[in-house]
Specification:
Blueprint lengths: L1 H11 L12 E3 L5 E3 H10 L6 E2 L6 E2 L6 E2 L1 H19 L16 E3 L4 E3 L1 H5 L9 E2 L20 E3 L4 E3 L1 H5 L8 E3 H110 L3 H6 L4 H5 L1 H15 L4 H24 L17 E3 L5 E4 L17 E3 L8 E7 L6 E6 L18 E7 L2 E6 L2 E4 L8 E7 L4 E6 L5 E7 L7 E6 L3 E4 L2
Antiparallel strand pairs: 1-2, 1-5, 3-4, 6-7, 6-8, 9-10, 9-11, 12-13, 13-24, 14-23, 15-20, 15-24, 16-17, 16-23, 17-18, 18-19, 20-21, 21-22
Helix pairs in contact: 6-9, 6-10
Length: 525
């Protein structure tokens, strides 16, 4: 029954791909288990086929499925395999039970036979008959030189198992000896130390493996998110281009219709004029053919119509010039402006996917401010008792970040809803800290967006520009393109509203800067 149960368990522990006992078992989301190497090989063969599937149940997966370690199954496999050597030893049968196989309980090294309980009871008990656990390789327990002698000692100098004759008269005479049991115990202790190191090493390896697997999962998650982001971006771009196409085509049609109406009016006027001229020409021809001088001379003057011909031609020519053609230059300018806005939005969305991790530098914070423990929130709270430092703002309640940016594109966002008087922006580390001109934007080393007395303005070198509209959301965004020399401010309403862009040639690294005169500001993220 035990053998049958073991065979049944072994069947359950076999990988359906390699048909061997699981090695490093992992499972799919459908619940089926495989050796990691086996399932990786199968998934590799499915690469590029448009999808993946479980070799067991054929469940399909759109993306390559993540492999989860089955630690419980791995432990079951290890326990099963560790129990197999003992079971194999019990498969030694009694030498003397020839009618039917009976499991042996001992083997006699002298007789080179295995014994069941019955034959063991009648076996000779002399010391020469050395008994051991059941074994099928008893010849390995005898000396290769003194054929009948049992290996009983271990030569430490030669690292060899020897018999008593080798010890007394052979080549190992005079060497340091230990009994097999004693030498075996010493070896076991060493092996236990090695085993412990291997266990530790395997645990470290498993941790690394798990970390790599988690990293792989993280990479796949980021790739999935990035695919969604790009799909969304291009979808929005297609919609904007389609909308722009409809607007431009509609504008062209509208302009063409206006020009057509003007041209049609001119055509009607010219046709009337043509008819009038034709009638006049017939009348004049009739006069020319008359013989009566009195009738010819009494006819009203007909030259006035010809006198106005040049004047009419000039007037109609001017009307054709003013309204006779499409103003494609104006349409092209509008199209170019709309495309520029679309590309600007695309550039902003595609080049910077995540905000910079801004942390405030407490050593720069004015003593009228308090900085939160996570160093992302600044609140107005006078009379802070910090040590005076050269980098600390002395006059105005301002603070800058400990990070600086000297290349690349970056952005950061601030929740300004907790204050009615604030400024945000960027500055050089060389900005003054003690003087009146230390306010962000009121010098040539900083650029700022301000809210003061319910008015919004941007400031650089004390030059203030009033914004034409108020910020409608609680969050603003500061965008830096160092190489292009641009600092831009945005209102994070829906859709995002561009507020202002400063342009400059930056000569130092730039730090984020905040100032608050009441309430608090909080950096997002």
């Amino acid at each position: 029954m035990l053998v049958m149960a073991s065979a049944g368990l072994r069947k359950e522990l076999e990988c359906s791909i390699c048909l061997n006992i699981y090695t490093n078992p992992v499972n799919l989301t459908c619940g089926h288990n495989f050796c990691r190497v086996c399932i990786d090989r199968v998934l590799d063969t499915q690469e590029g086929s448009g999808g993946y599937s479980c070799p067991e149940c054929r469940q399909e997966f759109q993306d390559r499925p993540a492999l989860q370690r089955n630690i419980t199954l791995r432990n079951i496999v290890e326990n099963f395999l560790s129990s197999q050597p003992d079971q194999a030893e019990t498969e030694v049968f009694c030498t003397y039970c020839v009618d039917s196989p009976v499991p042996a309980v001992k083997s006699c090294l002298l007789c080179e036979s295995s014994l069941c309980d019955k034959h063991l009871s009648v076996h000779k008990k002399s010391p020469a008959h050395v008994l051991s656990d059941p074994s099928t390789s008893m010849e390995k327990r005898k000396c290769s030189i003194h054929k009948e002698k049992i290996l009983e000692y271990y030569c430490i100098e030669d690292s060899a198992c020897i018999c008593v004759s080798c010890c007394l008269i052979g080549e190992h005479k005079g060497h340091q000896m230990k009994s097999l049991n004693e030498a075996s115990e010493k070896r076991k202790n060493k092996l236990k130390n090695v085993l412990q190191k291997l266990v530790t090493k395997r645990e470290e390896t498993e941790e690394i493996l798990q970390s790599l697997q988690e990293h792989g999962g993280t990479v796949e998650e980021k790739a999935t998110a990035e695919r969604k982001r790009v799909t969304s971006l291009l979808g929005d771009l297609r919609k904007q281009l389609e909308d722009l196409e409809k607007r431009v085509l509609s504008e062209i049609s509208k302009k063409a219709e206006e020009v057509s109406r003007s041209v049609n009016d001119l055509v009607r006027q010219m046709e009337i004029k043509k008819d009038k001229l034709s009638r006049k020409m017939i009348h004049i021809e009739e006069l020319c053919n008359m013989m009566d001088p009195l009738t010819i001379l009494q006819e009203s003057d007909t030259g006035d119509l010809c006198d106005t011909e040049d004047e009419d031609r000039e007037r109609h020519g001017q009307r054709l010039h003013d309204g006779g053609g499409l103003d494609m230059a104006e349409i092209s300018r509008a199209l170019q402006a709309d495309l520029s806005c679309i590309m600007k939005e695309v550039n902003e969305r595609i080049y910077i996917s995540e905000p910079a991790d801004i942390l405030l530098d407490v050593n720069t914070a004015c003593n009228k401010l308090i900085i939160s423990d996570e160093r992302k929130t600044v609140s107005y709270l006078p009379n802070q008792n910090r040590l005076e430092t050269p980098e600390r703002f002395k006059v105005y309640p301002q603070v800058i970040s400990n990070q600086s940016f000297s290349s690349g594109r970056h952005y950061w966002e601030v929740n300004v809803g907790g204050s009615q008087s604030w400024n945000v922006g960027m500055c050089y580390p060389s900005i003054v800290r003690k003087e009146e001109k230390s306010r962000i934007g009121f010098n040539n080393k900083s650029w700022g967006l301000w809210k003061w007395s319910n008015q919004y303005m941007v400031v650089y070198c004390s030059h203030q520009i009033q914004l034409p509209y108020n910020i409608s959301s609680d969050k603003v965004r500061i965008d830096l393109d160092y190489e292009a020399g641009r600092i831009s401010f945005y209102d994070l309403c829906d859709p995002i509203q561009h507020l202002h862009t400063f342009t400059a040639t930056f000569t130092e690294p730039l730090h984020a800067a905040l100032g608050v005169w009441e309430g608090c500001l909080k950096i997002s993220g």
